[in-house]
Amino acid sequence: MADHEESLLEKITEKLHGHDSSSSDSDDEKKSSPSSLQSKVYRIFGREKPIHKVFGGGKPADVFLWRNKKISAGVLGGATAIWVLFELLNYHLLTLVCHALILSLAVLFLWSNASTFIKKSSPRIPEVHIPEDPVLQFASALRIEINRALKVLREIALGKDLKIFLSLIAGLWILSIVGSCCNFLTLFYIAFVMLHTVPVLYEKYEDQVDAFSEKVMIEIKKQYAVFDAKVLSKIPRGPLKDKKKA
């Protein structure tokens, strides 16, 4: 009888533990459900990180997102001054470099002789040299990005994803039309201004832009499905699998 009672007690405790674990699991699911809902929120380009992290999270991100307004305004003002000099005033790069060197050498020469004549001692002009580590880091990062872009272009050229291939062709075609309307410097300046304005505006109106872009992407997918059913699916393709098997 004692053994029978002990077995009954063990079964009851197991059921109680099972009920507690199931209730705890349901509580965990309830707790995790808000996070799962948050993870399902649509972000443009499948973004999962904040805008500041997307731009690297360092000083360039601070400049693009106007964390320091003086530095961002100075960078944008310098780019605007360069564009005005070369585009509106028709200044040439070699002429600008020569004039800048002439002015700097003349100022240093006059300063050195004037201070020597007055104080009878030559001024201390600091030595300027380019450090090696930042240049190597920039070259290494540029090499990695170029290799990554070439790898992506190779995968697209292999024809693994027709949607990406058509999107790239359309993008390059639009870029060629824009390039025929303006020169490289103007195009570069427009892209530079957009980098200093679009991310800030997107960060400010993030939820509204993501909601609108979700509707646009749904409509694009619908139109692509119709185009695929009416055009792409009817394009004859050779029996590649049969050739490989043979």
β-strand number: 0
User: What does the oligomeric state look like here?
Assistant: single chain
Helix-residue proportion:
over 70%
Mean pLDDT: 77
Low-pLDDT regions: 1-5, 15-39, 240-246
Largest sheet: none
Give the helix/strand class: mainly alpha
Q: From the alpha-carbon coordinates, what is the Rg to the nearest angstrom?
A: 32 Å
> What is the number of helices?
10
Listing every helix as H and every strand as E from the N terminus to the C terminus, the arrangement reads: HHHHHHHHHH
Content of β-strand: under 5%
Shape: elongated
Span from first to last CA? Answer: 76 Å
Explain the overall architecture:
The chain contains ten helices and no strands. The chain has 246 residues and is mainly alpha-helical.
Quickly describe the structure.
Helix content is 78%, strand content 0%. The chain is an all-alpha fold and 246 residues long.
